[in-house]
Amino acid sequence: MTLLTTFVEEFQTALDVAITTNISEKEKVEKKEKQKKEHVKDILSKTLKHALHVRELKKLRNMHEAATVKLEMFLKKMHVFSKKTEAEKIPLIVYLLDALKNNEAPLFVDRMQHLALVLEEKYKWKEWKYMFKLSSSKIAWGVHKLRSYRSTLDKSIKQMADLVNKGDFKATVAFLGLLDTKGDTSTSDLDTKYARLSSVESLCIPPPSRRSVLAQRALELFKKQQNTDMVFEIILVRDMGDIVIDHTHGGDPIERQEDDHDMEIHQIPAHCVVLAARCNWFSRALLSGMRESIDKKITIHDTNPEIFSMFLEFLYCGHIQLNSLSTDQLTELLTLADRYEVADLGRVCEHGLLQHVDTDTALCLLSIADQFQSTTLKDKVLNFLRNHPDLKNGEVFVQLPPHLRAEIEDVIQEDEMETASSSSVDDVEEMVGRMQVSSRRYSSSSSSSSSSYVEYGELATDQNRLADCIAGLRGVIGDDVPEEDLIQFALAADYDVSRAINFYFQSS
Q1: Out of 145, 349, 405, 429, which could bridge 334 as a Cys pair, Cβ 3.0 to 4.6 Å?
Q2: Could you name the domain of life of the organism this protein comes from (predicted)?
Q3: Domain ranges for the chain
């Protein structure tokens, strides 16, 4: 029994040792396999990184080679261009700009439109935001690279800015950090030698509305009423006055009393986009969810349809014929311009009303100018009233507001005071002339009176200075000038010979 117990214990110990040894060997094998796998993984990762690195280096090398070739070609063309005479440069630049305007620019616009359509169909809003940020970052990266090579490209950028010859373009390039304008002392675009080569002016400065093709086509669109998407409804209400018997409905006649009204409705179709782009009031009404934007209809009361049609024509084409318009029509147009916040039309109407200032319209135009705060028109009317003070005696003057009547009276009183002051100045000048004549007589009489020399020492001194001054004048001018004239010159010059000589030559 003791032997069996000892055997069991030894067998259990040996079994434990064998199991422990087997487990440790298995763990060692698994550990070796794991290390082997990690080693293979590291090798593959390093190999992949190396491959990607090599691929990136190849792409950068290809980009560098392509940029180097293009830069060398550009420098070679620039060298050839710089050797050409100015007469040869002009047609070449004009040809290149025409090719850019007629061929490359439309193609670029078509590509951008196609790209916009593709992006709109393919990408959602989040994807579009990502693409926009990516493209803007690429552009920023390109601008940063250009800034890093600014010392090399500085001469070319300056020549390009001179060729374009526009302040906005130069300011944009300077804002991007590609051009240094601190040392730029030019004050005018015409100072550059490339001023006459500015063939892109038509792309930067809009033409006057009277010569604009776009304005003409917009006006034609309004007159033909093509593709309109809204309407103006102008309602005119007229009182009927006396009783009128209407037989037009058949049956018994219908009597209209004095409080009945005759209503006329005129409709003028238009285009929301044009009106919203040209007028802030219509932009708020048609694009901000108001009732007008839903109904696509704007109701206008107490406005002449012809005048409102002229108002819309101005919004479409930017100009209006003033020669055929009367004072009332210009005033109504000015009212529409003020109501719908069209400042350009207001200035045009104000300029047109300047030509209508006369005795019949001056006071009315003054009230209109005060109502719409037209300072130019108001000054013109006040200057007219300064020369026509009789207008304040009419009935229209009494109907004006008190502050306007006070301004008119102040202007007329200022004119009267200026007239009185000018007459008083003439009287003073005449008095001074008389005093000079009397002084000459007194000086001539004092020369013959010896008692005055003794009694008045100052007069004797003045007499001596007068004699010295006359002697000096005689030495320069000669004996041909009468003594009375010499005395007058000496007194005017306060006995100074040089000033007296100047007076003499100025008078002669």
Answers
A1: 349
A2: Eukaryota
A3: 138-205, 213-243+256-414, 449-507
